């Protein structure tokens, strides 16, 4: 699973450690040291994964993520010294797919990268049909989402949740089940991560996000995906 990984980290020593570990695993890697350079490089040559430090000069990591999410779906793993749940949720809300706090083990970082690359590169058999739920179409082969023929741009994490639920419409999923399907329990991510992704998905696919017709809440349990004909 050789990949091209862009590392945006202003700490030169940390960036060098990450680069060495990535290359040891067979990946190609480019290191940049400020947010402006990260944006320019993603636009120039789309990486398979962006490892993005939050605190960087010129443009910080949060703004980098905000800019890139308007333009593309590159998977983003954020690195930060901030460890509060509010900081984690802010990063995820902006479209990050995973989040590690400093200090971290380089071996754990590599495990996170392997998991994220597997998840974002996973495909199903070419003859598998597009999953259609009402006016919503989820294509697990091309990893695309359309609503009434209009493309809906999703982050990798959002897509995994939607694809899992589209495969079993009307099934009630707990947050823990969705977390296991999309990330696995080897990652230190809370179940509130799922709430953030669902909130963002509702903004993209619901006519009235506060009265969802597709991604409906089952209070005290979790969520289910309906055909969009009625809101509850």
As a percent range, the share of helical residues equals: 25-40%
Shape verdict = elongated
Low-confidence stretches: 184-188
Strand content: 15-25%
Largest sheet: 5 strands, parallel
Biggest β-sheet: strands ordered side by side in the sheet: 2-1-3-4-5
Q: What is the overall pLDDT average?
A: 84
**Alpha carbon gap, first and last residue:** 43 Å
Structural class: alpha/beta
Radius of gyration: 18 Å
Tally the helices.
8
| Total beta strands | 12
- Give the topology string: H per helix, E per strand: EHEHEHEHEHEEEEHEHHEE
Give an overview of the whole structure:
The protein is α/β, with parallel strands linked by helices. Helix content is 39%, strand content 21%. The chain has eight helices and twelve strands. The protein has helices at residues 12-24, 35-44, 61-69, 85-93, 106-121, 156-166, 175-182, 192-205, and strands at 4-8, 28-32, 49-53, 76-80, 98-101, 131-133, 136-139, 144-147, 150-152, 173-174, 215-218, 222-225. Helix 1 packs across helix 5 (106-121) and helix 2 (35-44) packs parallel to helix 3. The protein is elongated, with a radius of gyration of 18 Å. The termini are far apart. The model is unreliable at 184-188 (pLDDT under 50).
Main features:
232 residues; five-stranded parallel sheet; 21% strand
């Amino acid at each position: 699973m050789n990949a091209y990984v862009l590392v945006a980290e202003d700490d030169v020593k940390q960036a060098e450690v990450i680069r060495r570990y990535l290359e040891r695993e067979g990946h190609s890697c480019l290191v940049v040291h400020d947010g402006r350079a990260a944006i320019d490089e993603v636009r120039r040559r789309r990486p398979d994964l962006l490892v993005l430090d939050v605190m960087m000069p010129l443009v910080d990591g949060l703004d980098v993520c905000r800019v890139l999410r308007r333009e593309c779906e590159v998977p983003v793993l954020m690195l930060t010294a901030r460890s509060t749940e509010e900081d984690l949720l802010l990063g995820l809300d902006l479209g990050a797919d995973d989040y590690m706090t400093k200090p971290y083990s380089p071996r754990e970082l590599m495990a996170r990268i392997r998991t994220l690359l597997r998840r974002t590169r996973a495909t199903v058999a070419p003859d598998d049909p597009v999953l259609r739920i009402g006016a919503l179409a989820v294509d697990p082969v091309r990893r695309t989402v359309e609503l009434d023929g209009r493309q809906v741009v999703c982050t990798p994490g959002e897509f995994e949740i939607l694809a899992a639920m589209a495969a079993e419409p009307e099934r009630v999923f707990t947050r823990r089940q969705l977390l296991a399907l999309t990330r696995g329990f080897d990652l230190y991510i809370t179940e509130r991560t799922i709430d953030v992704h669902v909130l963002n998905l509702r903004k993209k696919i619901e006519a009235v996000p506060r009265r969802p017709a597709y991604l409906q809440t089952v209070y005290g349990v979790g969520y289910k995906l309906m055909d969009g004909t009625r809101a509850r």
